[in-house]
Design goal:
The protein is α/β, with parallel strands linked by helices. It binds zinc ion (2 copies).
């Protein structure tokens, strides 16, 4: 790991005034460890003393400025901490309670989608670490409607990656049409996929893991996969059809060609659910879609109630992310390691 960011140790910090440390991106690719003044949470928000924050591939949306960003910006949307102050109007949450914050920063409650119960697609929702500061910090402010409750028997470090990587795979599987005993394939055994395989197994599916090369075979079996398909030596679609065809394929790898190559592995009425974001277009023939009523869809993380369920289900079933921790001041190095594909499999920042 490269050296830590320099601690500015501002005069306020030295004098013991109310400040907290945060790692922010000041312009695309440029990091800074800074000291920020503590503020009271505004209406409908809480202030959280952060205990752990996962490093997610989607943090690149902030770091590389893929979204329009108001700089500087603190990334991080896999945040776990304790509430230390409640803003006006916050109900149902208490000071001292341990909570999580994911990518979706909290729904508005009044838009057409909220009124219809679809909180994920709220039209007035901010993204954590993109539209407002996230969890690469000792303290963060979050909208109460986006909070997830954290079970006591899950450590903050273990809970953090479940708030994006966990919720995304859990929610997609939970909303998928597969029933117990159906064949579910997980494409890609990385940050998302290694959780997807575990959830699929514990939800009672027959699980096929697909990845390139033989080195992930043993791990995939250990995570709960019944079958391992090496996409470097076998056509995943043919291999899945030999098993009867998948009801669901969870696509955790990015790359349109990968998605297209596995698509014919779906049984009639099956669905490929795309979770990995990438710029490459996905090519699927209309014949393959129409003649066996196959579906191709995307899923964006999940709502807060499903976040509660993700954490609780994980604690009950023993599903956990494989993690490496790093102190907050090593955030830039931890991010670089994750982006280089060298993390096994999720990096989590800790606040000491
Ligand atoms: Zn809304
Ligand atoms: Zn994420």
């Amino acid at each position: 790991m490269t050296q830590a960011l320099k601690d500015p140790m501002s005069p306020e910090r030295l004098q013991g005034k109310a400040t907290y440390r945060a790692v922010q991106v000041v312009s695309p690719g440029k990091w800074e460890l800074t000291s920020k003044p503590m503020v009271d949470p505004p209406l409908g928000h809480v202030r959280i003393r952060v205990e752990a924050c996962g490093v997610c591939h989607s943090d690149s949306a902030t770091v590389d400025g893929l979204f329009p960003i108001e700089w500087p910006r603190v990334p991080g949307h896999e945040v776990v901490g304790r509430i230390e102050a409640l803003g006006d109007g916050v109900q149902g949450w208490a000071v001292g309670q341990r909570v999580g914050v994911g990518f979706l920063g909290g729904s508005c409650g009044y838009c057409e989608f909220c009124r219809n119960g679809d909180l994920v697609n709220c039209r007035n929702q901010e993204y954590t670490g993109i539209h407002r500061d996230g969890g690469y910090a000792e303290v963060m402010t979050a909208k109460a409607t986006g909070l997830v409750s954290v079970p006591d028997d899950l450590s903050s470090v273990d809970a953090a990656p479940l708030l994006c990587a966990g919720l995304t795979t859990f929610s997609a599987l939970r909303n998928a049409p597969a029933k117990a005993g159906d064949l579910v394939a997980v494409l890609g055994i990385g940050g998302l996929g290694h959780l997807g395989v575990q959830y699929a197994r514990h939800m009672g599916f027959e699980v096929a893991a697909i990845a390139r090369g033989s080195e992930r075979a043993e791990l995939a079996k250990k995570l709960g996969a019944h079958h391992y398909i090496d996409s470097a030596t076998a056509d995943p679609a043919v291999a899945l059809q030999a098993l009867g065809g998948a009801k669901v394929i969870l696509i955790t790898a990015s790359g349109g060609k990968t998605v297209a190559a596995s698509f014919k592995g779906l049984r009639p009425g099956g669905v490929s659910i795309v979770l990995g974001v990438g710029p490459e277009p996905i090519e699927a023939s209309s014949m393959d879609l129409i003649f066996q009523s196959r579906k191709l869809e995307g899923a964006l993380t999940g709502d807060p109630a499903t976040g509660d369920r993700t954490l609780r289900f994980s604690a009950l079933s023993g599903v956990s992310a494989m993690i490496e921790t790093a102190p907050l001041e090593q955030a830039a190095a931890a991010y670089a390691k994750m982006m280089a594909g060298q993390a096994r499999f999720r990096m989590v920042l800790t606040m000491d």
